[in-house]
């Protein structure tokens, strides 16, 4: 019952997060992205941080088996490995049976159902790796943290797969990184279960492991009932059950409940263990058998319900600015453009974990992953394929890391993220033709005006820099090719415009 409940909840979260990257049901599934621990930690989202830690203190590392999509992905890989092993074992048994019937010599059977077994925790490596991540974050920025953050790594994989399925143009750097990550995750999960990723290199697993060792509810081994079959440890994908000592390393246990199902003698139960040492139980709990199940389900529902009540919903807008203008090229910009709500270039890149959720949900193709080393795979803005429509606030609504803070439409219209500039050498008046006036006609804040100027027979575009918000409508809609005659430079610190 516990295992089935956990699988059902994990399936809901996994499918919901995939739908977010596809752009389906984002109006009421957005809170799932907001529950991801590392982005919330970087964003300073105390509600989610405290909620996840409380969930871990009460139930153990349930987050890793239900909410974390990378953990669920590894569970799927492990499930497929087990099914493959069973299938190959059955096929081998049939072959051996035929050979035996034919009186032929039987080869040595191969073992396809590889067992996990207990492994001692490599604490030195875990502490050293965590120190490396923290030092890298402090001195070099987000690169290493983004690569190893479980949600962000999973997001890049899903974004690449969904993008290819939808026929989108995926940046080669993103595609290669996602492919390498997927291959490595498949190999290590197939071979070693969840020990290698979740309990060795995952920073979230390390943090939650420090709390889960003191969880109120834990799986406990009743030594008086144990017959020493070792099925629990051999099936433990976290490799945290010491079968000889009848002990469980709760800092590494991901609360999958597989061991409870694997134990045919009922020697393992998920019970109240607050304040107890990690010692095998000698007496069976007096609580009813279904008590822990009811507590698990009730606590899970309360925790998830509370989180969903405070998490912000997401909104996917599918309108406009999707015309095929592949022949446009990105101009050289003096300063990077970062989305409305970021506050500044430094704040955006210091908080972003490169999960690609904003890229996946941008309806105007303004955001795409960067390929430079300093901001590798973090989003960068460009107006070659669309512009940042003033009524669209999708990226601020879906960002789980606080890199793009929530901004409303009215505030967006008076927030300056860049300034447009005109290159008259590329504008039509330079070749003796009337200016098309697209930039002036489509500017949502009226910052571009057509004025008479000495030396030109026609009116030319002039930008009111104090009024321009940098949305890129003028740059995208300019007919000049391959570089627009009017382009936008970012500003380091966003500010309010002056009308």
Features:
499 residues, mainly alpha, elongated
Short description:
The protein has 499 residues and is mostly helical. The protein has helices at 2-22, 26-29, 31-34, 37-43, 46-59, 62-66, 69-101, 123-140, 143-148, 150-165, 172-192, 195-201, 203-212, 231-234, 258-262, 291-310, 345-351, 357-361, 394-398, 409-412, 438-442, 473-477; strands spanning 217-221, 241-242, 247-248, 268-272, 367-369, 379-381, 415-422, 448-451, 460-463, 486-496.
How would you characterize this protein structure?
It contains 22 helices and ten strands. The model is unreliable at 280-326 (pLDDT under 50). Helix 7 (69-101) packs across helix 10, helix 7 crosses helix 11 and helix 10 crosses helix 11 (172-192). It is mainly alpha-helical.
Q: What is the overall silhouette?
A: elongated
Cross-sheet strand order for the largest sheet: 1-4
Strand content: 5-15%
Mean pLDDT: 84
Oligomer: single chain
């Amino acid at each position: 019952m516990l295992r089935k409940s956990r699988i059902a909840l994990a399936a809901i979260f996994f499918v919901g997060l995939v739908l977010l990257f596809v752009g389906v049901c984002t109006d009421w599934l957005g809170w799932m992205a907001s529950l991801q621990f590392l982005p919330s930690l970087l964003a300073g989202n105390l509600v989610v941080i405290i909620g996840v830690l409380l969930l871990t203190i009460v139930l153990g590392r349930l987050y890793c088996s239900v909410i974390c999509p990378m953990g669920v992905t590894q569970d799927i890989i492990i499930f497929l490995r087990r099914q493959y092993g069973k299938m190959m074992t059955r096929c081998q048994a049939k072959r051996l049976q035929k050979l035996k019937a034919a009186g032929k010599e039987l080869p040595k059977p191969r073992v396809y159902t590889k067992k996990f077994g207990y492994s001692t925790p490599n604490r030195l490596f875990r502490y050293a790796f965590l120190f490396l991540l923290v030092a890298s974050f402090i001195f070099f920025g987000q690169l290493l943290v983004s690569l190893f953050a479980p949600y962000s790594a999973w997001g890049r994989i899903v974004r690449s797969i969904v993008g290819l399925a939808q026929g989108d143009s995926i940046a080669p750097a993103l595609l290669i990184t996602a492919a390498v990550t997927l291959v490595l995750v498949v190999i290590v999960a197939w071979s070693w279960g969840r020990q290698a990723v979740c309990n060795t290199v995952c920073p979230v697993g390390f943090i939650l492991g420090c709390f889960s060792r003191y969880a109120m509810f834990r799986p406990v081994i009743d030594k008086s009932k144990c017959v020493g079959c070792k099925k629990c440890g051999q099936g433990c994908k976290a490799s945290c059950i010491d079968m000889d000592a009848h002990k469980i390393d709760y800092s590494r246990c991901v609360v999958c409940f597989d061991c409870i199902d694997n134990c045919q003698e009922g020697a393992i139960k998920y019970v109240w263990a607050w304040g107890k040492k990690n010692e095998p139980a000698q007496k069976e709990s007096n609580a009813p058998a279904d008590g822990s199940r009811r507590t698990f389900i009730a606590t899970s529902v309360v925790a998830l319900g509370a989180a969903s009540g405070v998490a912000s919903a997401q909104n996917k807008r599918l309108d406009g600015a999707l015309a095929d203008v592949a022949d446009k090229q990105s101009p050289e910009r003096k300063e990077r453009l970062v989305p409305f709500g970021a506050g500044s270039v430094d704040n955006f890149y210091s908080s972003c974990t490169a999960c690609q959720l904003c890229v996946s949900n941008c309806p105007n193709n303004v955001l795409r992953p960067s390929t430079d080393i300093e901001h590798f795979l973090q989003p960068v803005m460009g107006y070659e394929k669309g512009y940042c429509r003033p009524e669209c606030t999708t990226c601020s609504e879906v960002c789980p890391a606080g890199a793009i803070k929530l901004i409303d439409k009215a505030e967006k219209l008076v927030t300056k993220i860049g300034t447009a500039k005109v290159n008259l050498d590329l504008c039509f008046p330079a070749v003796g033709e009337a200016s098309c006036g697209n930039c002036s006609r489509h500017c949502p804040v009226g910052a571009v005006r057509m004025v008479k100027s000495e030396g030109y027979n026609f009116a030319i575009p002039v930008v009111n820099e104090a009024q321009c918000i940098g949305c890129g409508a003028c740059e995208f809609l300019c007919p000049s090719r391959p570089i627009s005659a009017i382009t936008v430079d970012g500003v380091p610190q966003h500010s309010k415009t002056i009308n």
